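Researcher: Good morning. I'm working through a list of sequences from a screen, and I'd like to move beyond sequence-only analysis. For each chain I'm collecting a predicted structure so we can compare shapes side by side. This is the next one on the list. No need for commentary yet; just the structure.
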Amino acid sequence: MKSLTIYWSRVFRSLAGILLLFSCLNLSAQQDPVFNQYMNNLLTIQPAYAGMSGYVNMTALSRIQWVGFDGAPNTNTFTIQGPFKKYNVGLGLSIISDRFGPVRQTGVYADYSYRVLLENDTYFSFGMKGGFNRYEALMTDLVVHDPSDPVAAFDINKKYLPNFGIGFIWHADQFFLGASVPKIFKNKINSDSGATIYQEEMNFYAMGGYVLDVNDFIKFKPTVLARWSENTPTIIDFSANGLFYDRVWLGATYRMKNSYGLLFQIYVTNSIKLGYAYDLTSFRPSQYNAGTHEFMLSYDFPVVRKRFCRFTPRYF
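Model: Good morning. Structure tokens for this chain:
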């Protein structure tokens, strides 16, 4: 028991170290979409997650933000990922469609991870992602008070911005710690005069989670996801979830100085999981919208080649 206490003490000290390290960096603008069910959408920001579960998985997630607020963000993602070559290699594909106001973005990224077995049945996984983001802004569709405003004078039509990212995760069956930078290139879109009208920025992430056995029927899972970028506030998501009879997840989420909400997920079968999350903004504009809805559908393919699968519970 003493050795187990020392082991998990090291786990939590490692997480604290990651958060402290990233808090000292000078970072850039936050542009990536945010999710309450981020643990089911981790591949979009963390390439090292590819294949980590041990199953071939497809997940679709739709986020309808700030219902009733004109031009509010609407984000849809689709991911597919799984292990390859006896769990050492993971492959994945992420597709992200994001709309807010006049802006339309579609990102397509391929993910690759390689993991190494360490002592105490833990793994270290390193990942890379590469792809592109298609950006367009229909500025001329806006209703403006000043027709001479140069910002709304022309559209940005389907600019393709290539990019790549990296990440790592240290994990076992009931915990994980990780960090990632999903976009490294600072792509720019310039006007005819040479002025920068849009620029992709580096976003830095740190993440972690732990599963505690409360009893034979209930498990408790706290998780955290922190994001840093230049010229915008640090965003930290906290969630606390209970798993009941290995079938139903119930939990709450809190995004610092931004929103709070509830989530519900259920395994309809051993392969199909449905999820729903709802949150409200904690700042003043909450009176102008009816909250945010998230819908999630996840499917694990039946295992055909047993050597690919580790047969561990799907906690992360």
